[in-house]
Amino acid sequence: MTAAPSIAVGYASESGNAETLARHLTQLLHDQFQQQLPSQTLSITCLSLDDLAAQVAHADILLLISSTYGAGDIPSNGGHFLSELKAKRLQVQEKQMAVLALGDRAYDSFCQAGRDLYRLLAEQGAHVLVPLFEADTSFQPTYNQWLSRLLPRLGLAVPEKLLAFSKTYSAREPFLATLTHQHRLTSATADKDVRHYVLNISGAGIHYQAGDSIGVMPVNSRQRVEEVLAAAGLQGNEYCRRADGHDGPIAELLSRYIELTTPGQTMLQWLAEVTGAEWLQALLHPSQVQALCQFQFTADLAEVLRRVSGQVDPLQLLARQSGLLPRYYSLSASPLSHPDELHLTVATLSYSKQGATVQGTASGWLASLPLGSKVPVFLQPSPLFRLPEDPERDVIMIGPGTGIAPFRAFLHEREQLQAGGRNWLFFGERHRASHYLYQADLLRWQLRKELTRLDLAFSRDQAESVYVQHLLLQHAAEVFAWLENGACLYVCGDKTRMAADVDRALRQVLVEGGMSVADAGRYLLRLRMEKRYLRDVY
User: Fold this and answer.
1) Angle CA(23)–CA(72)–CA(16) in degrees, nearest 5?
2) DSSP state of 323
3) Considering the chain, what is the average pLDDT of its residues?
4) Which domains does the chain possess?
5) pLDDT of residue 16
6) Which of 149, 207, 247, 250 is most buried per CB count within 10 Å?
7) Shortest CA distance to 11 belongs to which of 74, 58, 84, 95?
8) In what order do the strands lie in the sheet with 533-537?
9) How many C-alpha atoms does 498 have within 13 Å on its Cβ side?
10) Is beta strand 213-216 parallel, antiparallel or unpaired with respect to 374-380?
């Protein structure tokens, strides 16, 4: 037997799509080499990009599949690989490579992570097997096209049947769920309006797990649509074709497909070019990133239209404005306890813009819906935020505010599985009397011994604010003991402040347990690698 080239299949995946395709590709190559080239001994591995970084030198062919997360970022299990590649510390010269990029055309940073990988590999001397392929949310046809180009370059004939996909829903093709229940979780006098929603998905074939999220495609309010039409001097029946493929009467596009609150950077750049407006050119200068962000936060699409009235065709401007993006919510019930239902925990946003009080696009729309309304949804799996496979393992959950949502699902799941592991929840909000989310559920779980420990931080019920990170430090010895006993640790909620504060508190917990600061950092890193420190932050 002769040795075939060593192939490394790598993935960077946030929702699981890239990993699913990478594992399918690995199995396909294994099967096709056995059938078509039985005299060759195939060496093939399938790893996350971060795990692959240490093994790049041993591979002859790199086949990479990456999604894009956030503002053009690579998912967390590919960040180390990309950093090493940028620093030119990976031996990729003379290797053969192909990259499939997954993304969402509604975002300005469409497929940016995959583009970065492809560009850096090519710049550093890797040989291109096939050009970069870029797939939108309905990625299946593009994946099959990529395979049809890739397999012949590996000396393999293309099978008659490639990957047959079952029906999947996406932002472009959502399932219309039915709103069957909603109620307010905070009191009528509370300064926050947090609500519980139940959506019926019977017949959808949507199979979710505790820890997953759901994408909701909202509808812009009629008032906002009319404000934009007035600012643009349009009646609403004018035809418009957008770059994202949507076309039709502009009023319909404004209602369902165009972002009305935040002026998009791509549109602003086009506007600066065609108008030559100095204020725009200054705002878009690389040194004015903070000023641009502030403008996008405080201005809206109607204001931009008013400022350039008479200088451009408003339909051309609207054709280039960012698309209306889905909003993602952690599911707050397990399919084991509530089959054919999606439970959402949503804070109705309210803020001041242009001197007026504005509600969040999606949260305000949801709050306005009568029962029986249709809500366009699609599943956003979270394979990196799962309960431990061993039901006997303890779990520590830290979820202030609406961050409690996935932990309600976890507790439902553990209850249904009769899991033997202990459950400890840290929850925080402003006031016990008015902001205690899911109080009845938590008390029931306590009485049934499903919730072993419940520690509460109501920040404004005393002179000095108390948050969940303070509770971690108050119970440092016990938290440390649970971790040393193998507990899994979960954090959900605000990324900007809470998650960072909790991380610092955990490091202090470990230091108080006898570790040095450096050892505490390494300990948390090991927990991450073992999938025992998982975060769903936003």
Assistant:
1) 25
2) B
3) 93
4) 2-153 (3.40.50.360), 175-217+326-380 (2.40.30.10), 222-320 (1.20.990.10), 395-537 (3.40.50.80)
5) 82
6) 250
7) 74
8) 453-458, 423-429, 395-398, 488-493, 533-537
9) 26
10) antiparallel
Q: What is the pLDDT of residue 283?
A: 94
User: Which residues touch 367 (CB under 8 Å, ≥6 apart)?
Assistant: 182, 193, 195, 346, 348, 359
> Greater confidence, 350 or 167?
350
Higher-pLDDT residue of 119, 108: 119
- Which long-range CB contacts under 8 A does 111-115 form with residues at least 24 apart? 111/68, 111/135, 112/68, 112/72, 112/73, 113/12, 113/66, 113/67, 113/68, 113/69, 113/72, 113/73, 113/74, 113/75, 113/78, 113/82, 114/64, 114/65, 114/66, 114/67, 114/68
| Cα separation, 193 vs 17, whole angstroms | 34
The b/e string for 206-215 (b: 16+ C-beta within 10 A; e otherwise) is: bebbbbbbbb
Sign of the CA dihedral with 176 first, then 364, 372, and 251 last: negative
Contacts of 14 by beta carbon, 8 Å cutoff, 6+ apart: 67, 69, 75, 76, 384
Distance, CA of 262 to CA of 269 (rounded, Å) = 14
Give the bridge partners for 228, in sequence order: none
Instruction: Choose among 207, 183, 185: nearest CA to 194.
Output: 185
The stretches of 354-475 forming alpha helices (DSSP H) are 361-368, 405-417, 432-435, 439-447, 468-474
CA-based torsion, 470, 475, 476, 482: positive or negative: negative
Tell me the two tokens of residue 34: 């056995």
pLDDT exceeds 90 at position 384: no
Q: pLDDT tens digits, residue range 469-517?
A: 999 999 999 999 999 999 999 999 998 899 999 999 999 999 999 999 9
Give the position of tokens 């600066």: 272
- Written as one string, the DSSP assignment of 198-248 is EEE-TTS-----TT-EEEE-----HHHHHHHHHHHT--S--EEE-TTS-EE
Nearest CA to 46 out of 3, 15, 77 is that of 77
Instruction: Please say whether the beta carbons of 346 and 195 come within 8 A.
Output: yes
Q: Is 440 exposed, middle or buried (0-12, 13-18, 19+ CB in 10 A)?
A: exposed
Q: Looking up tokens 């960012």, which residue turns up?
A: 322
The set of residues, in sequence order, having a beta carbon less than 8 Å from that of 365 and lying 6+ positions away, is: 218, 219, 220, 221
Whether the predicted pLDDT of 1 surpasses 60:
no
Q: How far apart are CA 304 and CA 231, in angstroms?
A: 9
Q: Is the pTM of this model over 0.90?
A: no
pLDDT in tens, 261-276: 999 999 999 999 999 9
